[in-house]
Write a structure and sequence with these properties.
This protein is α+β, with helices and mostly antiparallel strands and about 425 residues long. It is built from twelve helices and 21 strands. The protein has a six-stranded antiparallel β-barrel with strand order 13-16-15-14-17-18. The chain has a five-stranded parallel β-sheet with strand order 7-2-1-11-20, with helices on both faces. A three-stranded antiparallel β-sheet has the order 3-6-5.
Amino acid sequence: MKKVVIIGGGAAGMMAAVAALQAGCRVSLYEKNEKLGKKLYITGKGRCNLTNACETEDLFAKVVHNGKFLYSSFYGFTNFQMMAFMEENNCPLKTERGARVFPVSDKSSDVIRALSGYLKRLGAEIHLNEEVSRPVMEKGRIRGVVLKKNSRFVEADSVIVATGGLSYPSTGSTGDGYDFARQAGHKITDLTPALVPFEIRELRIVQEMQGLSLKNVRVRVVKGKKILADEFGEMLFTHFGVSGPVILSASSYAAAALKKGPLDLLLDLKPALSEEQLDARILRDFQTQKNKQYKNSLSQLLPARLIPVIVERSGISAEKQVNEITQKERRGIVESMKEFRLTITGLRGYAEAIITQGGVDVKEVNPSTMESKKVKGLYFAGEVLDLDAVTGGFNLQIAWSTGYLAGKSAGSLSE
């Protein structure tokens, strides 16, 4: 019976254990935390958006880096297979807006319970509070791992590194897997926080609107004339800048360019209306409240906290009566709503990042098996690899699919 050692008891590690057990292996999983799935527990604000119910072929468009590498993984263990696995293991699911899939209970603990329960039933050896210090290799082949406690050597036929990245370090994601990969001769691509809020130069403006959430906004990140990201949905103003689903997704496309300098963030506050339609709407509102001051005339169109900012940005006196506002001035109001410009100066840190961008260079990993091309019997799965996607359950599907493929391949009898 093949012995498979898995380093990391998160999403990818648990799914790798599932597949290796199904292949008839002896599985030892080492997790340095006191419980499995610690990061999984906090995903989706504790609700766990565990996958997306889009067509499997549509998953690739949501991957930001190295989507082609995931062909065997995504088709080898699809989003629908993941959903079926959960349902079969007493975790009923529901699908919400954007085809995002959650447990019916809205509790991430139910996802962890389904996985850990399966592992225990099939006899996985789960070692909690047990940290691996290094993999052991000999003549281009994995031999096992050394544990930090007492420097004990654990022999293995295959080792799967599923240690996550650097995001949410409080959950144990401290980059160990990158060190293990380097020891095996692997290149690590540039690492950066991803799916993370933006820091904004115009602090006074964002702080005036701190806590304000906007539901249907178009967000573009622009460098010169090049559009790096174009997203539609919900965003939030914070004490340091902007956050929310569309901002997090945009951050994945903007991270690399931000290292070279600030970028423009263009907000279209009324994406459902063309400039002409918005102008007509403003004119209609003005006509019904002719004697009002400009600062009191936008309540039908904008949230109260946003009005003073738009008034200031349009360059029109707040006290001016609306019946005195010219067509040219109205165009300025339209522009301030359709192209609300802010300057992105940076990303928040790993403590606020949902995932890490960058990782083990996928050119050095076999996409059909997740095995290292440098060391036989060494496999990688999940966030430790240079793979990332936008929000909506896609990053977890990468973890499930790569974990499953690594576990199945590591457990295969063919050498």
